[in-house]
Amino acid sequence: MAIDQLEGKNILLRNVIRELVSRILEVDKTYLPFAILQLEKDVTSIFEFQSGKVVKLFGIIDRVDEKDGSLRIVDYKTGKVEKRKPTAIEDYFNNTDYKEQFQAMYYAYLTNISIPGRQISVGLMALKTMKEGIWMLNNGEPFSAEQFTQFESHLKELITRIFDSKIPFTQTDDESGCKYCAYKEMCHRGE
Ligand code: SF4
Prior knowledge:
The chain has helices at 8-29, 91-94, 99-114, 145-163, 184-187, and strands at residues 35-48, 54-67, 70-77, 120-126, 135-136. The protein has a domain at 34-165. A hairpin with an 8-residue loop joins strand 4 (120-126) and strand 5. By secondary structure, it is α+β, with helices and mostly antiparallel strands. It has a five-stranded mixed β-sheet with strand order 1-2-3-4-5, with helices on one face. Iron/sulfur cluster binds at residues 171-172, 177-178, 181, 183-184, 187, 189.
């Protein structure tokens, strides 16, 4: 359909998209020169446990930029992002307040495997607060090899717990995400 044939809701959507693209370009201008290396890229990795169990890790990374040989991952968020700073890598795993940060570091971890030997930093951009630009994790510093090692160790622990048949699945204590949960009908939370 030609642009001049758009009607109703589609015109509104077009205007929203124009506004978002224009704001992203404004933010990008402040980071020049850089190259966009990847967009909406599927990334996988394999975990092999001593027990012989093999787990496939997967993520779709919104965007990876390259500047002076270093990589910057940008994770776009439709909602608001609370700029909470974890004090240690284990905070990503123990506190759901850091779920956006956890996801972003998980992407950095996968990128470190798929494109090894690069400095990798990661930032979040909330569509509702785009004027504030990209909020960089880890105080804007690239993650260190030690941080990735710690992250991997905690991730392995987490996956081991998920597969441990002696640990039952229970309803979360944090009900804030239940409203949007795909399993809420099955779960009967709050009944
Ligand atoms: S609705 Fe149930 S399954 Fe979904 S997050 Fe809440 S407790 Fe977990």
